[in-house]
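Onboarding guide, step 5: your first structure request.
Type a short instruction followed by the sequence, for example:

Predict the 3D structure of this protein.
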Amino acid sequence: MELSSSFTHLPKISDISFSSSFTHLPKISDISFSSSFSPIPIQIHLKTPKISKNFGVFAVAIDPQELPQNSPQRLLKELAERKKITSPKKKVPPKRFILRPPLDDKKLAQRFLNSPQLSLKQFPLLSSCLPSSRLNNVDKTWIDEYLLEAKQALGYPLEPSDSFGDDNPAKQFDTLLYLAFQHPSCERTNSRHVKAGHSRLWFLGQYVLELAFCEYFLQRYPRESPAPLRERVFALIGKRNLPKWIKAASLQNLVFPYDDMDKLVRKDREPPVKSVFWALFGAIYLCFGMPEVYRVLFEVFGMDPEAEDCQPKLRRQLEDVDYVSVEFEGNKLSWQDVAAYKPPEDALFAHPRLFRACVPPGMHRFRGNIWDYDSRPQVMRTLGYPLAMSDRIPDITEARNIELGLGLQLCFMHPSKYKFEHPRFCYERLEYVGQKIQDLVMAERLLMKHLDAPGKWLQERHRRLLMNKFCGRYLRDKHLHHFIAYSEQVQDAFEHNRRLRNPATTAVQQAIHGLSYTAYGKPDVRRIMFEVFDFEQIQPKAV
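The system replies with structure tokens like these:
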């Protein structure tokens, strides 16, 4: 009998001799193999058909040219063989890939009609930020337990907001305040309507905060350039400092009901706090408007713009020899001045003080220059300016149009032209306010347009629509970049090098948004962005 080529052919069982790894034993039943053999059963082909019934051989066939016993290649081969024989476990696809049958038209229509998002016709933005389905008993339990504590900390009356009339946006404050505290790490975030409602609020709230601080600091520091202003904002509402403000208002137990906030590591502490902080200001803005945002920031959270750790880093300042408007001269405006300010009835602009903070009075020296005669009429024609206004006195209309023309000239005035002698004679401050109002207007547009979209998706869409290269591209599509006033030394470089030109066109685009906001208000920013420049890219293109 021959087991395989490595075994010796012997006629009798008793005379079988094995290789050196076998132990010679008199009985078959006592034969033991060493542990180096694989447990995988391998078929053995026997040449002699007649074998006694009690004889069974368990062995591994070995090639004559096989690798040594302990070599890694051999072990890898054995592993490969073993994997072939053991059947792999079937993987269940994750739930999100299992398709559900679509809702039929009747159910879908019913779901939309029952959604609170379609309940307020007179407040479309507020309505779009309500939860997509009605609050259930678990939501109401949280409201019963914690809402009074939140309201007391923020300084609001404790009675339910349902007592307000239907024409008052504050009626929805309880619902939005509940959503604001349901950050992604808390237990209620598995409910779709809560998760999406919270993320939509923080998506809006971040731009509300940026615009609030932008307007406040531009008026408080009328001579500063935007760089130190941005540093001040970051020092107040950068994510590293937000836990400090939440703790100052005693809201940490609502954000972390089961943990001590001070003992959490930064990566566990900061994202939930940032999410709640932004969503909170989204809710306050929707229900009470911008003055209330200032009150909560400076009264409830106790932010101090003059604090030592909120000051910008020291830098070489250009000497500012130009005048500022009379209302800013010699006094720093407080947050109460900004929050309570109402423009007079015969004011030239929607936000006259913000306009004065961005367009210095000395701009009048440029009236009647070449740009004013040559470029201004073409720019105003493209932008649809001046808008028709019903003024009682014709002189007011004329004064507004003159100021608007000077503001437009400032929008197209590149820093290389006059900035080193006159630091505020460039578009930088208008660009700063334009960036912030552009972000907020686009955020509101997306919220009202995509009712069922979560905040993360809206954030990505917002970023793609407002990417800097696109903003500059819309201006270039209208051929307005030819009117930018550069200094003679850099004019050729900027006109023939797109890496220099494109950021400049982006800045001019944003400065135009800032001017339209200060002069005519938010509706005109919408007109400029979505009708004149087509930021959403939905208008038909000329063939």
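Each response can be followed by summary notes, for example: Residues 1-11, 13-26, 33-39 have pLDDT under 50 and may be disordered.
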